[in-house]
Amino acid sequence: MENTASNKPQKGFLAQRPRSMFESFVHNETSGPILLFAATVVALAWANSPWGASYFALWKLPLKIGFRPLFSMDLHHWIDDGLMALFFLVVGLEIKREIVKGELSSMRQASIENSPEFCFDW
Known about the structure:
Layout (H helix, E strand, L loop, with lengths): L20 H7 L3 H17 L4 H8 L2 E3 L7 E3 H26 L6 H4 L12
Antiparallel strand pairs: 1-2
C-alpha cells in the first residue's frame, strides 16, 4: 500500500483529544457570566414561586464547621462573611497584579488622560 498524504498518520493527532462540550464551555470567557445569570433567574423564579418559603428557609440553614460554636452560622452569614472576604481578597490580588505587571504598571499607561471616559468634551 502506498503512503500518500491521505493515509499518512498525523503527528500529535492522538495526543490532542477533542474537547467535550463541557470543557469548551468551562474554558470559554463567557461561561462565568452565563452561569451567574442562570443562577439569578433560577433564584428569582424560586423565591417568587409557591415554593418561596423553602428558598428563604435555605438561607436560614445552620452550617457548622468543627465542634466549636464559633463556627456555627447560617448559610446567609457564611456567604456574607466568608465568601465576600474571599471575593475582595481575589479583587485585591488582581489589582496588585495590574499594578505590578499589567496596565497600571507605568504612570503613562495609568494616567487619567488615557482613560476613555475623560477623553470626551462634556
